[in-house]
From TrEMBL:
The keyword Lyase applies. This is Beta-eliminating lyase. Pfam families: ParD_antitoxin. Gene3D superfamilies: Type I PLP-dependent aspartate aminotransferase-like (Major domain). GO terms for molecular function: lyase activity. The keyword Lyase applies. InterPro entries: ParD (IPR022789), PyrdxlP-dep_Trfase (IPR015424), PyrdxlP-dep_Trfase_major (IPR015421). Keywords: Lyase.
Amino acid sequence: MPTSQPASPVFTAAGRHTLALVAREARADGVREVLAPRVRCTAMTTPFELEGLHVTNVDCAPSGLLDPGALAAALAACNRQPLILHAETFGNRAGDELRAVLAAARSTGARIVVDATHTALERAEELLTDAEPEAARPHDADYLVASLRKLLPIPLGGVVHGLARPTAPTRDELNADLAAVAAIAERHRDVPVLKDAVEDLLDLAWAPAPMPGPYRARLAAPGLGAELTRRRARLARLHAAVADLDVINPGAAYPPVIAHPQAAAIRTALARAGFSPPLHWPGVTDGLVVLPDDPRAAAIARRAAGPTALREALAAGEASGPAEPFDFDAFISSKTPKTA
Ligand SMILES: Cc1ncc(COP(=O)(O)O)c(C=O)c1O
């Protein structure tokens, strides 16, 4: 386990950079395997693979979090203590059962990384603290990491708490380009391709880089608290608007995530209405719709979900008893205007 010496958090340009710092430290201490949730994006595990760690997929519960039984089975198969990546996906937090498996694993030497990217609105205060006072250290984990650029109002940013040997990330040319393009993309939000360029550059820039100074300053600005309160309130209203649907993260400070058999069609309807594609991890979130943070999105999702509801109602009707035989010809002739 890392030493218990409190150390400062490290602020980086992206979440993947924080995971790279964790991967380096764990690798140097002899860790060789990461148990990672199957519900995730590649940027969460590539940093570990780049450091030569083996990634083992662990099945998730419907909440998107590690399934406690699957995690226990994966732990039992490890021949040395692994690192467990526990992501608070969709803003969901571990329940008692998962917490118990994580605590038991930690007590026998496994390291726990909590990825709070999706709980960053809820955990903003502890994530953004500059010092590493004892109270701000993760109590039930070794590392607390987050990509801050998903839910907080900055285009580049990540943070890691709990590194035993924190090293300041260094600047390199690619990361300087990244910061420049991110700044341009922010000035021209109406040009989505610029935002894509930031993501493309990030997929090349795996070397941990520091968070650009202006974004660090923005996170320390006095108005941030009020802005985050507004964001949380807006999300709470959005949750209330879809509470009757199959929402897998009720009450989370994260956009509602709806499980629906027509999820792909709903995502298409949202894209056609001009919403930039919200989170979708192909192969693992195919049956889910992450609702954009906009009240109009709820209405569009409902409309797109409608045909299924109708089909389900018809199927239920069919199941309720044999249908009357339908005379198609009689129906057509009843509709055809009769000539005298
Ligand atoms: C849960 C989670 N952790 C980490 C990351 C990586 O963050 P970044 O894209 O800032 O590197 C992502 C990206 O989608 C994520 O969803």
